[in-house]
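Changelog-adjacent note: as of this version, every example in the card shows the full chain rather than a window. The one below runs 430 residues end to end.
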Amino acid sequence: MPGRAVTAMVTDDLRVPLLPAPPVHDDGTADTGGVLAWVARHLGHLALEGPDGVAASRIRGGQSAADTALATLDVTGYAAQRSVVAPVARRGATVLSPYIRHGLLPLPQVWAAVGGAPARDRSKFRDELMWQEYARHVYARVGRANAEPLRFEPPRPRERPSADRWADDPWPPGMACMAASTTELHDDGWLVNQVRMWLASQWAVRAGQDWRRGEREMYRHLLDGSAAANRLGWQWTIGQGTGKVYGFSRWQVEKRAPGLCGRCPLKDACPIQEWPDADAGPPADGPDLGPGATPAGPPRAEVTGEPDAVWLTAESLGDTDPAMVAHEQVPRVFVFDEPLLARLRLSGKRLVFLAEALAELAADGSTEVRLGDPVTELTGRRVATTWNFTPGFARRSAALDVVALHPWPWLRRPGSGPLRSFSAWSRALG
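Full-length structure tokens:
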């Protein structure tokens, strides 16, 4: 199968693709240059930019990069500087979210790592970790319904920009704050949370465009992009989760990125000089976020047989994955979901980040990397795996022979309380 897979294996008379492991250095860390070429060759047809446009982010993937980031974590000053956008040297954001999203740094581990930080900074940082957990609880409860308005309909600009001014774009050409934000998104695949709010508000609150299209575009590029956290962030920013819209204006840019407006071609005719003139939408008939059971997976391992493979998912690629730890002598397998990736068209940066993590896992020769439909690739095998909160996991695991299901490492295990409000939810959990 030239250009798609180097070798192949036959399982139950079904030919399935087995990719070579992404390359590593002698010390077992990912060889980024080699991984880049590997992604372009084997996954480039699935990348947003195509095989010739695959590039790496400045943020490295892999367990060694995650461990270094955590070991050097210092949240002193985080409360005051977490929303700083520029200059970059003054940013307080930690850039741990890509590692958290893919299970390289589980939330409980990160929570514990800041135990000795100054009280105000520790509290603010842990609030952000709780937000990630809340997003996972909501996604576990409502699944893909989080792509619909949760509590309120989309915001309604009182006066839409004229077609001759903005055409079909959510911002005018030359707008420095938007240009800087989208450039960083496309180059690095990561943004300070403040900037994510700017983009969402500009797109949906001021320009009145379909928030789901904007959310999908951001998701394609973010290394930490997840259907749980990214969608919830957009819903809260534009008021669909709270009924209160976030009004992005020049004031935020001058406060969080001083000097940027002074270099903007539109500085004397700023299209966001004032607060956006928009109202929150009316109440929506959204998914049930009231009291009710939230799926949480097993509280302890459920083992009914001996596995012959540990199935790794994109939510849990770290060396503390419960299934991998419990079955350390069992070969591991990760499947790049080709049908899903063909629909999503993720940026090559995201695929490189995943491949860097897989390269380190595969350094000892015990990890298979496959390309295809996960159910097809794993049918006929007895698998151990770690439960996760995504609807895709629920659907696929139900079709497989899972003989060992291990618990998800929750920061706060879901119960039966309401999920309408983050603040009420977090207070109830303590």
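Structural remarks: DSSP finds 18 helices and ten strands in the chain.
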